[in-house]
User: Fold this.
Amino acid sequence: MSPSQKVYGSMDILVIWLRVIGFILLLVSATTFVNIHYGDFKSDYPSGLGGYIGVFLGEHVVSVFGYIGGTILLIFIFMFGLTVFADISWVNLIKFIANSLVSLSLNLKSRFARRSLSSQRAKKKQAGYKSAFGKTEKASEFLDNRDPVVVKRSNIHSAESTRATKEKQQNLFPDADLGNFYRNLTSSTQQINQKQSDIPMTLWSIYPDY
Assistant:
């Protein structure tokens, strides 16, 4: 067997013995604690709830350390035996419990904050609905209670300004002059047509061979 195997074998034996010692400490401290605190209760067991070990050690522990001192000593032995037997780190356990409590408190705070926020929003919406409903009711009451509007025609005509009268478009051709204008226009067109008809006769008289 090599030296390393001997070391590992001795370490395994040491771990086993530590586990056994831890289990014995757990058993002894638990039975003694139960006998000290609950030994007066009636039970079907012949030696009570703590058994022979609890009865024997409980009397000596109480007689030496007293009730409170024996309780504290037994709790310390129980925790030490649990640490050795189950390989528990109390520091890590305390950290785990503290982190769990902190996370639980934060979750509870966040839930309460969400509930309060939702309740505030609901109250604001309800208040807004009430105010809008109140405004509509007031407006309807005002419209119902006000006097009816009556439109009166005014008999006063606005005086027309002289500038507006002057700026009105005048008739370029009065009705009296239209007849003479049309007669002159027809006579002039007849004269023009007569002259146009005389032009070929004049040309023929000048140029008979044309």
Remarks:
- Residues 9-88 form one domain.
- The first helix runs from residue 3 to 38.
- The helical segments are 3-38, 51-86, 90-145, 162-167, 175-206.
